User: Which sequence fits this backbone?
């Protein structure tokens, strides 16, 4: 992901290739690659997803409404979105801090720390789930100190938030990092020359430059957290109305052969992830325009 | 780094300290916990847990799933990147958004849609049943769900990379008489090699570690349809902590290897991009950009 963003940014910078109007269709293979892309996309993604929509339309409106607004389901929305929002906020703050430290300062072991940021991308979510549970449970490395203080971190909504922080961290760091690398030092020097304190320079000059990227990273972490299942179910305790996330509701409906109910809740989640995807795309366009504008 | 662009030493040290403590708590501790828990009862218990036949069949199934899903998405990724990066056509950005779609769909929903298509009550359910073909709650369903969740990985790495590299070299090859296949094999492929490795390695990590989607379509039959992450769950829920963490430790090792290869690929790509940027322009750049050569 890191490089995707970096390359995307590089192509938006003044090094961007020349307009490629004249090169259209000179290279062979357009029809076959586009044909295969659309075929494979339809087969794997679009047709199965449309099955979900069709299945939903076989429900009557009252059935659908009843399935998606049952108290237990509503409680799960509240937990899923609340915990995802809290986790994304924590990630925005600490992700920015980690990105800042990695870009601006040098310290021993920096390359290892940089590589480690991607651990949540590489570590299977189930492994993260049982491992975080082992640490935060009453007899775990951290849980044994917090529980006597009355702070229970596992098997309740706190655990959900912690698992979602783990999952979402790289999204914020990897979106902010390349933008931070590209901020222009002249702007900061000018601000200092004009008498700004370091904090003023950060809040008035640097922060506006990286704000779109930070918001994109926040939205990506949030979107990922909303759909997350593997790491959360081990640590959540999964008590109905208290610590049951929406994906778990879908699974338990499926296990009771309530396909209609599962489909209805899944449709709600699908619509929400669609909206988030469009929002992220919009944010990225804004970010590219912003960074393009700064450099021009 | 000029004085205008950095903070007082105590601020720097505090920020580095806070960032490292955060990374330690959220990333290093969970990783360390996996290995500690796996070795809690010593090496003998660890080896014993790994030699269980069910663990072996889970490992085999995981390897097979990845061995099918990754090449499929590799072919798709290269084809999609070729048509999106090398040509201009209507609906290109819409197509790119659709390719991203599986990233934002919850894994649980991804599993559910295949149940709706191939399950007993699904579109093809009766037909499949009549012909005694099992897709859901069997190995083909696991592979399909894995292909879905890892769908965009390679395409997303390659598209921006190939866009940044432009078409010039491929056109030169064409002019010199290379066939389309030769152009791809001798010109494009060496250029995108590291991006490809980067995409494949992340795709593979996700394919081997996927939990939510696979958990919905797997029949949870021990020794038959349990992948490694599902086997971890089964063992964990049976309170066989050492065995669960032993299998999990293999997945954690996979994550570490992934991070190492990923970092190497990243450094190589950066080096190549830098070398590309330092090449003297072969033709006078139109509207000579004064920033050229300074920014990169």
Assistant:
């Amino acid at each position: 992901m890191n490089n995707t963003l970096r390359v995307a940014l590089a192509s938006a910078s003044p090094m961007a290739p020349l307009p490629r109007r004249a090169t259209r269709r000179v290279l062979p293979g357009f029809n076959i690659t586009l044909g295969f892309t659309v075929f494979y996309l339809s087969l794997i993604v679009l047709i199965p997803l449309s099955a979900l929509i069709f299945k939903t339309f076989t429900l009557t409106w009252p059935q659908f409404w009843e399935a998606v607004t049952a108290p237990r389901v509503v409680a799960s929305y509240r937990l899923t979105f609340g915990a995802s929002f809290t986790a994304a906020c924590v990630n925005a703050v600490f992700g920015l801090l980690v990105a800042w430290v990695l870009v601006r300062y040098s310290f021993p072991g920096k390359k290892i720390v940089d590589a480690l940021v991607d651990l949540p991308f590489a570590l299977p979510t189930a492994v993260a789930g049982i491992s975080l549970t082992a640490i935060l449970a009453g007899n775990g490395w951290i849980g044994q100190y917090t529980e006597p203080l009355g702070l229970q971190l596992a098997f309740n909504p706190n655990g959900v938030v912690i698992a979602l922080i783990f999952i979402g961290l790289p999204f914020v760091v990897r979106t902010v990092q390349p933008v931070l690398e590209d901020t222009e030092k002249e702007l900061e020097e000018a601000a200092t020359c004009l008498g700004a304190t370091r904090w003023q320079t950060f809040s008035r000059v640097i922060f506006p430059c990286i704000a779109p990227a930070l918001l994109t990273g926040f939205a990506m972490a949030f979107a990922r957290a909303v759909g997350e299942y593997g790491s959360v179910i081990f640590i959540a305790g999964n008590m109905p109305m208290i610590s049951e996330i929406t994906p778990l509701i879908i699974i338990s409906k499926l296990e009771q052969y309530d396909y209609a109910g599962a489909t209805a809740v899944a449709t709600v989640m699908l619509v929400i992830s669609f909206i988030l995807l469009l929002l992220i795309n919009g944010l990225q366009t804004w970010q590219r325009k912003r960074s393009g504008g700064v450099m021009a | 780094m000029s004085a205008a662009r950095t903070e007082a030493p105590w601020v720097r040290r505090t920020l580095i300290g806070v960032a490292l403590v955060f990374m330690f708590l959220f990333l290093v501790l969970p990783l360390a916990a996996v290995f500690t828990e796996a070795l809690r009862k010593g090496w003998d218990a660890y080896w014993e847990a790994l030699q269980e036949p069910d663990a072996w069949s889970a490992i085999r199934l995981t390897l097979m799933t990845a061995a099918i899903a990754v090449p499929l998405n590799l072919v798709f990724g290269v084809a999609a990147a070729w048509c999106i990066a090398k040509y201009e056509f209507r609906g290109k950005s819409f197509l790119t958004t659709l390719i991203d779609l599986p990233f934002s769909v919850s894994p649980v929903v991804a599993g559910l849609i295949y149940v709706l298509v191939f399950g007993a009550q699904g579109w093809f359910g009766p037909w499949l049943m009549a012909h005694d073909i099992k897709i859901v709650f069997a190995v083909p369903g696991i592979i399909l769900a894995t292909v879905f969740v890892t769908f965009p990985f390679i395409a997303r790495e390659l598209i921006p990379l190939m866009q940044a590299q432009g078409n010039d070299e491929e056109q030169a090859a064409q002019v010199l008489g290379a066939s389309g296949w030769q152009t791809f094999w001798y010109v494009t492929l060496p250029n995108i090699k590291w991006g490809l490795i980067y995409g494949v390695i992340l795709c593979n990590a996700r394919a081997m570690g996927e939990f939510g989607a696979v958990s919905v379509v797997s029949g949870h039959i021990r020794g038959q349809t349990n992948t490694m992450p599902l086997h971890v769950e089964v063992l964990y829920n049976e309170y066989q902590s050492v065995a669960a963490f032993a299998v999990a430790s293999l997945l954690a090792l996979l994550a570490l290897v992934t991070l190492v290869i990923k970092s190497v690929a990243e450094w190589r790509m950066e080096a190549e991009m830098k070398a590309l940027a330092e090449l003297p322009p072969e033709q006078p750049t139109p509207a000579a950009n004064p920033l050229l050569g300074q920014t990169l």
Remarks:
- The longest helix of chain A spans residues 259-295.
- The two ends of chain A are 26 Å apart (CA to CA).
- The CA atoms of residues 160 and 236 of chain A lie 5 Å apart.
